[in-house]
């Protein structure tokens, strides 16, 4: 019986469940071993790009010519329509329109599926950030990366199944990639870009790995003895697996983080300069290197904040920081034959108002009623737009897509029925999509 099936059907009592995880901690049973999906998957892994702060849809991926024509027009209790400060143009053979803020990404238009009808439930950064990651606004629940790790396992036992590149914590902090009630080993491993992405990676006493191996073997025997005497507590099994994974990470991480085997053309394509170990471009390249080595879920959290209540011109620097690197990531995966099996997700927590207050001359407020996220690769219908907002970008007029629908679609592309990927906890089955969610079948190729 599969791990998740046994948990869902509840045939394990507390002792049986603990015994399972205790057994899983042994070398012969890796709790993160690859798991079969509900049906054939289009994608084998995910790279999620999170742009915190609430990216304006009308300034990026949902341009509105009519809004430009009506700039400054007053409507609805004194609100003033505010045009985008940037033009837009068609990209690729599909003619998908993308803002001038993203000229490199526009060149990859034929790989993008823009979901222009996203909406959420809260316009508060903290709650909306939790929601776009875990589907829940209040209380910490497992993030999508933890759910993907739980459902799929990993293809490489020497690397974490769930990795988060994050220099500056987003709103809601590390709760976004927490495993919560899922076993601890599904939690995101935070990597801080810089000279030492993973602190204390080498043995601290300078004696090398041989002595460490003997110490860890002794610790493992003691831990197993302790766990055998406490069959109702599965937490130790997760800690024991974490030690095993850490040893594998010591062996493999230095090679993953090195770019010595990357040619100059590849580094130039991303925009990576000599000695760079912290830029967003470097993180995108690391996402590709980790993905091709079997990591199931890699998230890149932009350290910049797109919360433009004023000075919309700041978007020029923000977009320039990510445009070339994201476009290079798409092209690089495609060139290597990995794009079809790698799902790229680019999201933000909500959009921004297509209008401003009369006394304001710049900036936009939070807006949960309409925003844009996009997908690429991994079985997605490239060169397409799903859903639509009205001529001003205010109201959704076609194919609304709630965050639960977004998550259901991602899981579908990974081979899961979102209603069946569950975990029994505290007396009931939990799932990423709560009690809602519909797959957006029109985004699937």
From TrEMBL:
Keywords carried by this UniProt record: Signal
Tagged with keyword Signal: yes
Range of residues in the leader sequence: 1-29
InterPro entries (alphabetical): Alkaline_phosphatase_core_sf, DUF1501
PANTHER family found in the cross-reference section: BLL7424 PROTEIN (PTHR43737), DUF1501 DOMAIN-CONTAINING PROTEIN (PTHR43737:SF1)
Protein name from the UniProt record: Sulfatase
Species, as recorded: Stieleria varia
């Amino acid at each position: 019986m599969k791990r998740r099936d046994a948990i869902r059907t509840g045939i394990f009592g507390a002792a049986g469940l603990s015994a399972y995880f205790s057994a899983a901690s042994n070398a012969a049973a890796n709790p993160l071993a690859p798991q079969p999906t509900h049906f054939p998957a289009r994608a084998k892994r995910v790279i999620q790009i999170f742009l915190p702060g609430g990216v304006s849809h009308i300034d990026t991926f949902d341009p509105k010519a009519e809004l430009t024509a009506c700039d400054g027009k007053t409507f609805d209790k004194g609100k003033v329509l505010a045009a985008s400060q940037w033009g837009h143009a068609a990209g690729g053979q599909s003619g998908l329109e993308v803002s001038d803020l993203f000229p490199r990404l526009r060149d990859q238009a034929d790989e993008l599926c823009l979901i222009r009808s996203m909406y959420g439930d809260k316009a508060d950064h903290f709650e909306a950030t939790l929601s776009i990651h875990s589907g829940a606004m209040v209380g910490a629940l497992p993030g999508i990366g933890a759910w993907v790790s739980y459902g799929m396992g990993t293809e490489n036992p020497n690397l974490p199944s769930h990795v988060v590149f994050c220099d500056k914590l987003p709103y809601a902090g590390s709760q976004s990639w927490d495993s919560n009630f899922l076993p601890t080993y599904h939690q995101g491993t935070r990597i801080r870009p810089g000279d030492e992405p993973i602190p204390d990676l080498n043995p601290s006493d300078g004696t090398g790995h041989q002595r460490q191996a003997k110490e860890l073997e002794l610790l493992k025997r003691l831990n197993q003895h302790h766990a055998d005497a406490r069959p109702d507590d599965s937490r130790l099994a997760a800690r024991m697996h974490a030690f095993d994974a850490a040893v594998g990470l010591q062996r493999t991480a230095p090679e993953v983080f090195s770019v010595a085997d990357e040619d100059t053309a590849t580094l130039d394509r991303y925009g990576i300069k000599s000695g760079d170990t912290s830029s967003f471009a470097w993180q995108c390249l690391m996402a590709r290197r980790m993905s091709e080595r079997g990591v199931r879920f890699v998230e890149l959290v932009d350290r910049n904040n797109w919360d433009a209540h004023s000075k919309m011109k700041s978007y020029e620097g923000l977009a320039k920081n990510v445009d070339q690197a994201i476009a290079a990531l798409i092209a690089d995966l495609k060139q290597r034959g990995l794009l079809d099996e790698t799902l790229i997700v680019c999201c933000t927590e909500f959009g921004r108002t297509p209008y401003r207050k009369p006394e304001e001359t710049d900036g936009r407020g939070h807006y949960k009623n309409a925003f844009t996220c996009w997908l690429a690769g991994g079985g997605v219908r490239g060169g397409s737009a799903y859903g639509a907002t009205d001529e001003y970008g205010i109201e959704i007029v076609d194919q609304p897509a709630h965050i639960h629908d977004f998550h259901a679609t991602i899981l579908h592309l990974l081979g899961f029925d979102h209603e069946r990927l569950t975990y029994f906890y505290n007396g009931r089955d939990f799932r990423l999509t709560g009690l809602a969610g519909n797959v957006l079948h029109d985004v699937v190729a």
